[in-house]
Amino acid sequence: MKENLVIIPTYNERENIEDIIRAVFLLSERFEILIIDDNSPDGTAEIVKSLQEEYSGQLHIIERLGKLGLGTAYIEGFKYALKHNYEYIFEMDADFSHNPLDLLELLKACKKPDIQLTIGSRYKTGVNVVNWPMGRVLMSYMASKYVKFITGLPVYDATAGFICYHRSILETIKLEEIKFIGYAFQIEMKFTAWKYGFGIEEVPIIFTDRSKGVSKMSKKIFKEAIFGVIQMKIKSWFKKYKPASELKTSQNATA
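^ thats the sequence. predicted structure below, dont judge the formating
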């Protein structure tokens, strides 16, 4: 079984993509990268493909026909990871808001016996966000408070997008039933993993807003999270979640 796959969705990230790829490949652990590009008009995919010969067998790309949403990109990446037998699957942004060095901490935490999901958390030890306007910090912070209040999810940073999953989570969750595409996608994945009984640990990180390129955040995405959380909670009342204890035993046996 292969070990580590970092999934990085991209749309117009030519200013960052080569640097983030090289930074990940310089780490002390071996990581492979899967870029999922939504037909970036700025040539992001071409830059990735030009690097594939240098990083043969380590750098992969899926090119999609258009801008189809963050959630669908990750779902496609998860299916790729399962098909190609990766054990630890990461979500990461292309713009250096997530420090590549923190991949090592997420992996270390996810290898603990009772943990299957690790979260790069901006809010576990306070508010560790650099270069965001105060309004956006408050919006993000209060969104996590809101999620915890509505759902009971015991996570400080419910909307975090810097994640490590053990493959057992992705094998258990019916990926085709994950419907949200923005903030709410991140919440839905964490909530579903928690409902199945998987172990979660938050790893404190410092989140630094991008210095190059343009943010993809929008009010529409945030509204999806606000109303989607209520919808998600109501749907969970009518769904049975089989405990993941058998899968935890399987993970421990291979650790």
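The radius of gyration is 17 Å.
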